[in-house]
From TrEMBL:
Domain EAL: 24-277
Coiled coil ranges: none
Superkingdom as given in the UniProt entry: Bacteria
Protein's recorded name: EAL domain-containing protein
Parent-record interval covered: 628 to 913 of 913
């Protein structure tokens, strides 16, 4: 809450607000340095086919290797990045790095689909489809191996440009999936409005699916909805074999979660999932 200074139009901020502003400015300055110093890394989390256990993809998840604070998770800095002038630089780096990685794996004989999280700013500035098109050409990766993850905060902007960008991205051959499906306000209406290729069922519905009947009903309905709309479906946040089995019984084809593997550096991902006999059992047993 800001008060008007009696002497003029200056605003005097409550200490808590000033502290929050200072914290944000410090973080923004640090993040600008981090971009320059290349302190970001992409970790990869396996996505598996629940019936065969085969690893079919990897979601790229950003980490900040801070010089003193260690590995910082995206929740601690992506919200600030996304509302700062740095968002474009970071988003560009994420996309380029993930596409290069997918190409590298493809060249090594692993047709692993790589999921990339998009941020709202990527739909506001510049031409995302043209950028993706250029990246596909430069890296040489097959468009079918790139899966762009969008959340409801992107869809709710409701600019005609978003729909047009979606159409152009799909024309390039990359796929678009609805991330954190079911957590927003109008998930179903977006399914009607936007051309999507798949859904990612949010972890909040998966976590207690074994014990909560309402979660099981929501997940089951989402799976049958996706089948009728001809969408792929993946459940996030699978932490044990019983949950994986239950989801498979509900008809869910793909899964992602700590049970199969936490997000990890690319080298670890290769060692664990892309070595000679990459099987489900390996993923589950680790
Ligand atoms: P998301 O896209 O929904 O990613 C899934 C998150 O769930 C990841 O958190 C992952 O580590 C976590 N997760 C996966 N399986 C399990 C599980 O079995 N149990 C539990 N407890 N958690 C699980 P992470 O890496 O901290 O990322 C958080 C969010 O940050 C992401 O949610 C995404 O919205 C955002 N994010 C991450 N990387 C990027 C990026 O490169 N660009 C943008 N714009 N956003 C990103
Ligand atoms: Mg995601
Ligand atoms: Mg998600
Ligand atoms: Mg999520």
């Amino acid at each position: 809450r800001a008060k008007t200074d009696r002497r003029g139009s200056h605003m005097i901020f409550e200490p808590a607000i000033r502290q929050e502003l200072e914290r944000r400015l410090t973080l923004e300055a640090e993040l600008a340095l981090a971009v320059e110093r290349r302190e970001f890394e992409l970790f990869y989390q396996p996505q598996v086919d629940l019936s065969s256990g085969r690893v079919i993809g990897a979601e790229a998840l950003i980490r900040w290797r801070h010089p003193t604070r260690g590995l910082v998770p995206p929740g601690d800095f992506i919200p600030v990045v996304n509302t700062s002038p740095l968002s474009e630089a970071v988003a560009t780096w994420v996309m380029a790095t993930a596409c290069r990685q997918a190409r590298e794996w493809q060249l090594a004989g692993h047709e692993i689909r790589v999921g990339i999280n998009l941020s709202p700013s990527q739909f506001q500035s510049g031409d995302l489809a043209a950028f993706v098109s250029k990246l596909l050409t430069v890296t040489g990766v097959s468009p079918g191996l790139i899966e762009l993850e969008v959340t409801e905060d992107i869809l709710l902007h409701d600019e005609p440009g978003v729909l047009q960008t979606f159409n152009r991205l799909q024309a390039l051959g990359v796929s678009l999936v609805f991330d954190d499906f079911g957590t927003g306000y109008a998930s179903l209406s977006y399914l009607k409005k936007f051309p999507l290729d798949g859904l990612k069922i949010d972890r909040s519905f998966v976590r207690d699916v074994l014990t909560q009947a309402d979660d099981a009903a929501i997940v089951g309905s989402t799976v049958s909805l996706s089948r009728q709309l001809n969408l792929s479906v993946i459940a996030e946040g699978i932490e044990n074999q019983a949950t994986a089995d239950f989801l498979l019984a509900l008809g869910c084809e793909h899964g992602q979660g700590y049970h199969f593997g936490k997000p990890m550096p690319a080298a670890d991902f290769e060692r664990r999932f892309l070595s000679a006999d990459n099987t489900a059992r390996q993923a589950g047993a680790a």
